[in-house]
Task: inverse folding
């Protein structure tokens, strides 16, 4: 993977805010609860049309049967109140189902629905009260049957929100039960006991229905999540297939070049040997060219092996205490000749920071960043430094290359993506476009964060945010850098 590089004078990047580890699960649970509540509210409104139809259809037969026991004006007022309330409930239902209700408003809509259900139940309870007050045995039986039917029929319609059903059933049966208890004779007491039993049984079935609906909603969400996961896996498989195709094309091209170059140099050397014109200078020149090609080939193979090991989950993190200054000095010795050969100045700032990390993996990350910076910086300098941060350290590689356009700053971390404009890098040194992909994946394996800041024409800075060992390891001279 390649890229270009950074501003001449490094300055500390602002620390990004971090959320606590427990916040994500809490947010997930809250989101799941809100989604379940919204789905149950939708069921409550959609299934209530059965009760609303019963309110419209049953009023007239009930009024007809009770016409001899209740004054006509009172029956008319009762029927009118039920129709007006039912019409209002229909309007509210349609309003809820036609709009996208935000999660924070679901509670208000469910509460309003419950209040309207309780009022409707109370109006039907008045009809039951009138049946008891009529002092007519047949009317008493009719009132009991009417209430039993209305109360039981509301179970599937209102059980998506148990308080809505419980309040409606209580408002429906309480006037009838109280009036029967007030009468005090055996027949009325039997009816009162029946009403109490009816209320208890229907509450039980309402609770069962609610649990069933809640389970159904949860299963629906699980199925949706499963489908989404399957789609993601399908997309990942398709992306992997496309990546494999790109990999084969890139590997076939980039591996063939150094092999072909080695063949050419070997043929040249063999041809001159056959002619007897092989001088020590010629041999040294060809050997150095072969060594350069082999180094590029080795970098290609290292990148391929790194990716294959990570894909196979064979890399194991072995952490221990590492002095960054020792690691930086080793990197300086390895990369300073390359920097001088490119006419660049490699600066490595001393540091006293120590990390609990895997030195081999961290070295591989910094190898890729420094090699990338040196290959994609035509002039100027490359800087390696480490800065202490509260709860961590920031390792940075700055360069003064051409920079990276904002729209390309994320794609440079994708596998098989090459940066544009490496004027001094030979084709064999540009590689398969794996360097920065390896940096990001190894950083994730270590629990680090790899980021990029760049301005076209000014250069780039690649940062690795790593946890520090102890605050005591941060030198006093750097205390002002802590945020």
Result:
């Amino acid at each position: 993977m390649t890229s270009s590089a950074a501003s001449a004078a490094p300055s500390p990047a602002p620390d990004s805010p971090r959320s606590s580890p427990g916040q994500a699960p809490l947010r997930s649970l809250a989101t799941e609860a809100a989604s379940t509540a919204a789905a149950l509210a939708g069921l409550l409104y959609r299934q209530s049309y059965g009760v609303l139809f019963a309110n419209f259809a049953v009023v007239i037969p009930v009024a007809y049967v009770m016409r001899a026991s209740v004054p006509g004006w009172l029956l008319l007022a009762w029927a009118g109140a039920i129709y007006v309330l039912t019409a209002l409930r229909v309007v509210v239902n349609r309003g809820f189902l036609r709009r996208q209700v935000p999660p924070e408003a679901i509670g208000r809509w469910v509460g309003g629905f419950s209040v309207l259900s309780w009022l409707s139940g109370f109006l039907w309870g008045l009809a039951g009260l009138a049946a008891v007050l009529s002092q007519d045995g047949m009317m008493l039986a009719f009132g009991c049957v009417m209430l039993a039917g209305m109360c039981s029929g509301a179970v599937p319609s209102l059980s998506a929100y148990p308080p809505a059903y419980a309040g409606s059933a209580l408002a429906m049966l309480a006037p009838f039960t109280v009036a029967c208890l007030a009468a005090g004779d055996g027949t009325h007491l039997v009816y009162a006991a029946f009403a109490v039993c009816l209320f208890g049984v229907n509450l039980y079935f309402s609770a069962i229905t609610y649990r069933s609906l809640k389970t159904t909603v949860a299963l629906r969400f699980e199925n949706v999540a499963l489908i989404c996961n399957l789609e993601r896996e399908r997309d990942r498989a398709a992306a992997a297939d496309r990546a494999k195709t790109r990999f084969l094309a890139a590997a076939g091209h980039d591996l063939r070049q150094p092999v072909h170059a080695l063949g050419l140099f070997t043929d040249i050397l063999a041809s001159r040997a056959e002619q007897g014109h092989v001088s020590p200078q010629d041999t040294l020149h060809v050997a150095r060219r072969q060594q350069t090609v082999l180094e590029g080939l080795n970098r290609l193979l290292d990148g391929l092996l790194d990716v294959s090991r990570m894909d196979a989950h064979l890399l194991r993190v072995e952490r221990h205490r590492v002095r960054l200054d020792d690691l930086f000095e080793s990197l300086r010795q390895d990369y300073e000749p390359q920097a001088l050969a490119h006419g660049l100045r490699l600066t490595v700032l001393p540091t006293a920071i120590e990390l609990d990390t895997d030195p081999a993996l961290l070295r591989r990350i910094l190898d890729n960043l420094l090699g990338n910076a040196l290959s994609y910086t035509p002039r100027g300098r490359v800087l390696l430094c480490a800065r202490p941060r509260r709860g961590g350290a920031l390792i940075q590689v700055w360069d003064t290359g051409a920079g990276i356009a904002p729209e390309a700053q994320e794609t440079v971390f994708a596998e098989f993506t090459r940066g544009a404009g490496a004027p001094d890098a030979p084709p064999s040194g540009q590689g398969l476009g794996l360097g920065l992909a390896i940096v990001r994946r190894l950083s994730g394996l270590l629990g680090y964060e790899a980021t990029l800041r760049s301005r076209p024409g000014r250069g780039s800075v690649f940062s690795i945010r790593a946890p520090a060992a102890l605050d005591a390891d941060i030198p006093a001279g750097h205390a002002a850098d802590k945020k």
Notes: Residues 1-24, 420-430, 470-483 have pLDDT under 50 and may be disordered.
